[in-house]
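Ops channel
N.P.: pipeline sanity check, posting one input/output pair.
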């Protein structure tokens, strides 16, 4: 049986090799024409999908956020794939601090694995070793078939090629993302910490938000923060029994609630020693909506204005050498945080105004999507 050679396969491999060996020049071919490799204008984000309550057996609140459309991976006209993260809320009972006896607390952890992307090792750290054969492999891209054989679309980048480029890769720092999400949620007034208190001065809820990177194709900061907020919006605190003397807390199981017909104020459980507290969802404040923009130098040597790419992909982040800005806004037109990464991400006053304006528009767009 003879195989039919498709000329399109050869052209795709030439583009794949060009993208892997010369990512800066490859991206410049598109940005010089005011477009991006996936067809988006500079100011456009990828479509966002949010799914909640999909880990009901293992958590008290969960969410999955996807940036991009996985169907694009099979479309030969695009090179895009998706960024996807999941988050789950688990609960611990802790002791509140002396300065905030009625407040609970929030902890955040971000993890990754080799399944998150070919640059991640078993410990969840992203490697930027340019000698690795998977240096510029595009996560989530389908393998190509040529002449009956299946070949991977990754192309090695040698040290010689890397040495000739001024692009310096910045690995994904999950610890930095953890700290940023924790700080942003606490300062944004998205949740009221007093609602996490159980017994003043004795016990309070400690919400642990565990975020895992399923697929990394850029802009993990935005996806992780939105996923954490969506999981908090899905969180429902359980019914508990509180020992009034010691402050001890016991979570009441669903079986106990069924046996007591769901009564919270049942006289059997509300004695002088124990008090039953009903479960509740959290009262949500203004949603902190992030917007990350990669900052690339202009293709025109005579122009000093940088190129701003909203919701950058992994390739665009690599070419920008980690230079980006992230603005966090809410629907009240407040700037919660303005975070700058990289030494070359310098913006003019007009550009900062444009970034803030786009952030306010994105907050209006995503408020209903995340909070439902």
């Amino acid at each position: 049986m003879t195989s039919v050679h498709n000329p399109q396969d050869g052209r795709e491999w030439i583009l794949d090799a060009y993208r892997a060996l010369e990512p800066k020049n490859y991206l410049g071919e598109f940005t010089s024409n005011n477009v991006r490799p996936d067809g988006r204008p500079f100011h456009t984000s990828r479509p966002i999908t949010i799914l909640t309550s999909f880990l009901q057996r293992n958590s008290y609140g969960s969410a999955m956020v996807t940036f991009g459309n996985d169907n694009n991976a099979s479309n030969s006209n695009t090179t895009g794939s998706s960024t996807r993260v999941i988050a789950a809320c688990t609960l611990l009972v802790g002791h509140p601090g002396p300065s905030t006896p009625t407040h609970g607390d929030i902890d955040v952890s971000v993890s990754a694995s080799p399944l998150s992307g070919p640059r991640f090792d078993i410990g969840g750290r992203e490697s930027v070793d340019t000698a690795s054969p998977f240096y510029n492999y595009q996560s989530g891209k389908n393998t190509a078939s040529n002449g009956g054989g299946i070949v991977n679309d990754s192309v090695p980048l040698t040290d010689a090629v890397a040495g000739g480029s001024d692009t310096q890769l910045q690995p994904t720092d999950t610890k930095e993302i953890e700290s940023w999400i924790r700080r942003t949620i606490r300062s944004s007034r998205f949740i009221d910490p007093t609602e996490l208190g159980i017994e003043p001065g004795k016990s309070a809820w400690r919400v642990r938000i565990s975020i895992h990177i399923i697929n990394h194709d850029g802009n993990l900061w935005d996806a992780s923060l939105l996923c954490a907020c969506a999981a908090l919006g899905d969180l429902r605190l359980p019914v508990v029994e509180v020992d009034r003397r010691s402050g001890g807390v016991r979570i009441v199981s669903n079986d106990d609630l069924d046996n007591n017909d769901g009564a919270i104020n049942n006289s059997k459980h509300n004695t002088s020693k124990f008090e039953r507290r009903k479960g509740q969802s959290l009262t949500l404040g203004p949603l902190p909506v992030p917007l990350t923009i990669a900052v690339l130098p202009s293709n025109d040597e005579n122009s000093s204005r940088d190129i701003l790419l909203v919701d950058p992909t992994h390739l665009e982040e690599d070419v920008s050498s980690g230079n980006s800005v992230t603005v966090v806004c809410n629907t009240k037109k407040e700037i919660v945080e303005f975070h700058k990464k990289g030494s070359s991400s310098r913006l003019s006053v007009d550009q900062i105004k444009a970034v803030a304006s786009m952030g306010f528009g994105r907050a209006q767009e995503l408020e209903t999507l995340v909070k439902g």
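N.P.: looks fine end to end. The chain has a mean pLDDT of 80.
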